[in-house]
Amino acid sequence: MLVLDFGSQYTQLIVRRVRELGVYCEVHPWNGARAALDGLQCSGVILSGGPESVTREGAPGLDEAVLDAGVPVLGICYGLQLICSTFGGGVRGGDAGEFGPAMLEITDAGSALFAGVEGGEGVEGGEHSVWMSHGDHVESLPDGFASIARSAGSPNAAIADARRRIYGLQFHPEVDHTPCGREVLRAFVEDICASERNWTAEDIIDGIIEDIRRRVGAGRVLMGVSGGVDSSVAAVLLHRAIGDQLQCVFVDNGLLRLGEGERVMQVFAEQGGVRVRCVDAGARFLAALAGLDEPEAKRKAIGEVFVRVFDEAADALGEFKFLGQGTIYSDVIESGAASTGAGAGASKVIKSHHNVGGLPEDMRFELVEPLRTLFKDEVRMIGRSLGVPEHLIGQHPFPGPSLAVRVLGEVREEYLEVLRRADAIYIEELRASGWYERLSQAFAVFLPVKAVGVVGDARRYAWTIVLRAVETQDFMTAHWSHLPHDLLDQIGTRILNEIEDIARVVYDISNKPPATIEWE
Ligand code: XMP
């Protein structure tokens, strides 16, 4: 399936919903239809919503290539209005929009688009709860189209030209607030477009491995691994595809969590012997961080040392034509580069917003990005299927600058030591209680603030540890987690009993926004 993006905040969701049906789907910009259709064996096209108005001169239009392709088309919101204006219907701007929940009355239950929606969640008095978000609305339908559903504010809430297989929805089927939406999308993708279901873990893996082999040939690939989900799964896939032509580099920056370096090396050893050179560069990172207490200055210093260390390791390991990266589809979409195409990635200069602060402009490799077409949950799915251990696949995100942004202010080895131990106790307790999997991210933070305590008959004057735990869908907003008091009690007691350099343990109850998830 091809999704053309007209700028809706929900475009990624449409792609995910289609892929959940087991059908491969790509998103391309609204004006990139022809190039996209050339490269895809496409069974149907979905036009997304968008912030524009078709009544405005110069608003994004419908590329003729879409209609030339002869496949079914579904317009959502702006997409529906675009279909109407393209075929000569009337769209009225401005004043009569609907925002939020609405009830949908299906007036043509026989339409192929509604096969299977009767009953189910969100149905009241025969009407379906749907999510609307539009300022303009369709006033008159073009020839050949019929209204197949209506809401209080939209007489043409769904339209169809069954003969030409062109459909439109004023509501958003891709969001959870439209319970019947998955079924509507299923009917379009499966029944109307007859799309092939070939997006399973095995098919994805086979496709990617074939892609890598075709692209890399006999060339050597260098890849930095961090122990995170994306770079690990990418490295395992590359290894399956090209074996020892892959050389990984793991930079131990001395800012990792307790036992983390060893765990990462072990995972790769167990994965059929992926070649990983571990570079122990902790002293260099700590030296670069000495005296720095400003978060961005710390990030920059870490980025610079990383580049130097990585570069030296690469030089020592011989010639490489390619650089492997764990870029995933959301990174591609967010950077606006979706139009450069999927597959194993195009060659270009590495961007400066690399995870750990930037690779140099003059470092020219061709990029190989095996996960470039996958969402995070798909990366996890194929990681499991490849046998990557669950503790790695299910782990919370960990920032590139590592513990340096969790020791507030200047980073010192003694602070890191205290933080590592506290964090390990915290995570161990979360795992043992079953809470780890329910949280999006949890970690300890070291505050260089001394507080007074009493242990036995002695006074303790020692550091403060913060416990952070959040729940979030997208990490853009987050809510602090309501961990049970008994569990917090157990964690606090253990940390204070087992680590004498800590006098206080506090729990962070800040939401994002206005706070951020990390403390720096
Ligand atoms: P914030 O603190 O911005 O974090 O609410 C959102 C998510 O991003 C992670 N994060 C980083 N990841 N380099 C990274 O690779 C960074 O500099 C960085 N800062 C924050 C954070 O852990 C959370 O998952």
Estimate the helix proportion, in percent: 25-40%
Q: Radius of gyration, rounded?
A: 26 Å
Q: Which word captures the global form? A: globular
Report the span from N to C terminus.
41 Å
Q: Which small-molecule species are bound to the chains here?
A: xanthosine-5'-monophosphate
**Number of helices, where a helix is a run of at least 4 consecutive DSSP H or I residues:** 15
- Strands ordered across the widest β-sheet: 2-1-3-4-12-11-10-6-8-7
> What's the story with the biggest beta sheet?
10 strands, mixed
Number of strands: 21
Write the layout of secondary structure elements.
Layout: E1 2-5, H1 11-20, E2 26-29, H2 33-39, E3 45-47, H3 64-68, E4 73-76, H4 78-86, E5 90-92, E6 98-106, E7 123-124, E8 127-134, E9 137-140, E10 146-150, E11 158-161, E12 166-169, H5 181-192, H6 201-216, E13 221-225, H7 229-242, E14 246-252, H8 260-270, E15 276-280, H9 282-289, H10 295-316, E16 322-324, H11 329-334, E17 366-368, H12 376-385, H13 390-393, H14 413-433, E18 441-455, E19 458-471, E20 479-480, H15 485-498, E21 502-507
Parallel strand pairs: 1-2, 1-3, 3-4, 4-12, 13-14, 13-16, 14-15, 16-17, 19-21
Antiparallel strand pairs: 5-9, 6-8, 6-10, 7-8, 10-11, 11-12, 18-19, 19-20
Xanthosine-5'-monophosphate is lined by residues 299, 355, 397, 399-401, 441, 475, 512, 516-518.
